[in-house]
Design goal:
Blueprint lengths: L3 E7 L4 H4 L13 H13 L7 E4 L3 H10 L5 E3 L16 H4 L3 H8 L12 H22 L3 E6 L1 H11 E2 L14 E6 L1 H7 L2 E7 L11
Parallel strand pairs: 1-4, 2-3, 2-4, 5-7
Antiparallel strand pairs: 1-6, 6-7
Helix pairs in contact: 6-7
């Protein structure tokens, strides 16, 4: 039975995140260092070249695609945008510390949403729709090797919901420009809705292989 590999890669760094700002739907560009780091990884470590390349619609992801896979067509998946922080977009935790709604959200972000934004549950449901549609597409089109450039929160959510070995979202954190490779076995997917997380992306050096 044919299996399908999907690489989930986090976009390059942006200045706003380094400043501690909540950046979700805000469409910012990669930082200078973010671009340089991606070029270094591409030229010195290397990424598996996919048959088909997918991306979040946001600029920091499409720019990362252009650096990592120059000249390759980018297929946008709107459901893979980062979480929408509503009125808190572009603000820091220090700036929001006096807002009681911020404290409520920190205590229960799964059920509570920022004003005008998404709760964790709403975000996860959107990501789930996007990922299940992606699996359906690669299977129907016979794409055995695909890559997705998206956001850290999106990748952590996908792996927390579908990944084997099972682990909470925070254990799937990754640096900018890195991610994980998953294998979709059609039998396991149809039966249990799970995928095997089998490597880092880019792949780890041989002496570190097997360590996630």
């Amino acid at each position: 039975m044919q299996s399908y590999v999907i690489n989930l890669i986090r976009h390059g760094a942006i200045d706003e995140t380094l400043k501690g700002k909540y950046i979700g739907r805000t469409d910012v560009s990669l930082s200078k260092k973010g671009r340089e780091d991606l070029l270094y990884i591409r030229d010195n470590i290397g990424y598996p070249v996919p048959q088909k390349l997918y991306s979040s619609p946001l600029l920091r992801c499409t720019e990362s695609c252009e650096i990592l896979f120059p000249g390759q067509e980018i297929n946008v998946i709107n459901n893979f945008s980062e979480c929408d922080f509503g009125e808190w977009e572009g603000r820091t935790a220090a700036e929001l510390s006096g807002d009681p709604r911020f404290g409520q959200w920190l205590q229960n972000s799964e059920q509570t949403s920022p004003p005008g934004g998404e709760s964790g549950r709403t975000f996860a449901a959107r990501i789930s729709r996007g990922f299940e549609k992606l699996v359906e597409t690669v299977s129907a089109e016979g794409i055995t090797h695909a890559s997705v450039v998206t956001h850290g929160g999106v990748i952590m959510t996908i792996l927390a919901m579908y990944g084997l070995p099972q682990a909470p979202a925070y254990q799937w954190r990754m640096d900018n420009g890195y991610g994980f490779s998953v294998r979709v076995n059609p039998f396991l997917w149809m039966r249990d809705r799970v995928v095997e997380v089998f490597d880092t992306c880019p792949p780890a050096p041989k002496e570190e292989s097997g360590k996630l």
